[in-house]
Amino acid sequence: MTIESVKPGASAATSLREPPLAGGGVPLLGHGWKLVRDPLAFMAQLRDHGDVVRIKLGPKTVYAVTTPALTGAVALSPDYIIAGPLWESLEDLLGEEGVATANGPLHRRQRRTIQPAFRLDAIPAYGPIMAEEAYALVERWRSGEALDVTAESFRVAVRVAARCLMRGSYMDARTERICADLATLFSSMYQRMVVPLGPLYKVPLPANREFDRALADLHVLVDEIVADRRASGQKPDDLLTALLEARDENGEPIGEQEIHDQVIAILTPGSETVGATVMSLLLVLTEHPELGDKIRDEVKTVVGDRPVAFEDVRKLTYTANVVTETLRLYPAVWILTRRAVTDTELGGYRIPRGADVIYSPYAIQRDRRSYERNEEFDPDRWLPERAMDVPKHAMSPFSVGNRKCPSDHFSMAELTLITAAVASAYRFEHAPGSDSRPRIGITLRPRRLMLRALPR
Ligand code: HEM
Questions:
Q1: Ligand 1 mean position, distance from CA 399 (Å)
Q2: Transmembrane segments in this chain: where (predicted)?
Q3: Domain 121-333+398-456: which CATH class?
Q4: Residue 25: which region, alpha, beta or left (left: phi > 0; alpha: psi -120 to 50)?
């Protein structure tokens, strides 16, 4: 489907059908309670009701899009912008002037500023840091004690993003604080999104106070990072320098608020998504030990006995396919929202101007209509000859279009390197207290993984 084919004439839009209403809503909360209680199952069954389905979140009507082609059409169409419940719930955190929340010309300028740091030819320079952090995990896990995988995964994600993109040892002392703050914020934000009871979240209950404290601390941390860099007088060739030196459309330096929001808008999604995916990868390696054995064999063949280096990554095709299959079944960004800026059409349905549109990469990527043995973990479905069978937009863990994750290559390199390093050193088993059920917040990850790393 092309963008043009979903753009109606203004008069056509008014004569279109209204999408069906999903069943099971209740007064006041609408379908919000289902999105709190079992959101993955709720989103996954919506396609049975139609390609586009109306759902109620509190008093709001939201349009859920359920087919790969139509989610691709939404992501690629200029009729939708970044707005809606997800982004409103994230606004306190991300501000309004960072690349993840800005729209229009401001967004385009910001993408131009940050893009060079994520370009394919920039990534090899990050290789030594990624490898160092991957092997720091291997070293830390030698003790044989039960690992708190949440802390370990988020630590490595924050450290790699911060060290690669905002070079400096100043991050070391702050990593723990960033991880703790983000964990608090991301768990509450999901509820704020699906049950948007605005003023109630201002009531000074313990959970709300904890949220406000974490948010304030994260903003202080970012101000400290920027102040430290300025005080150092150094201008390494990195993303932070690009942000500090950026100019607006009039050639003036960009404002302090925008710099602040930009740092948050890059560090936050970067840490949360990679942390969640490292957790999912470790769960996969625990539950399918044969995958780890094959990764170990591949590393032995390609690399030999020395540590895996960044330069090896592109030859580790089996390992990369395990990462890809993990992103299919456990997409960290499992839900996305947009807002229609004009009356428009989608799959023959009328989408009114101002409507919130929602879709789930999790539901799309597990759909039996797109994947044979859809629930089965099968890295070989990403072999080139088989990958061709996957319908367009049925696998978009980094999204497509102008909001596509700038960090797709960066993240794939990082995740492949970490997976190769840890799987060739260890097998994993659950330790007491491990709970691998999904924890659904703004991102998706296992709830509380406690693992034991068994040396090979
Ligand atoms: C945007 C996924 C890692 C920075 C996005 C989007 C997705 C995504 C799906 C699009 C959101 C939308 O369409 O509304 C992921 C996944 C990751 C990952 C699955 C890793 C497994 C990272 C990292 C960074 C990063 C490491 C930075 C260090 C961003 C930024 C945006 C974004 C700044 C906003 C882009 C824009 O709106 O123009 N990511 N991401 N991501 N991601 Fe990632």
A1: 8
A2: none
A3: mainly alpha
A4: beta
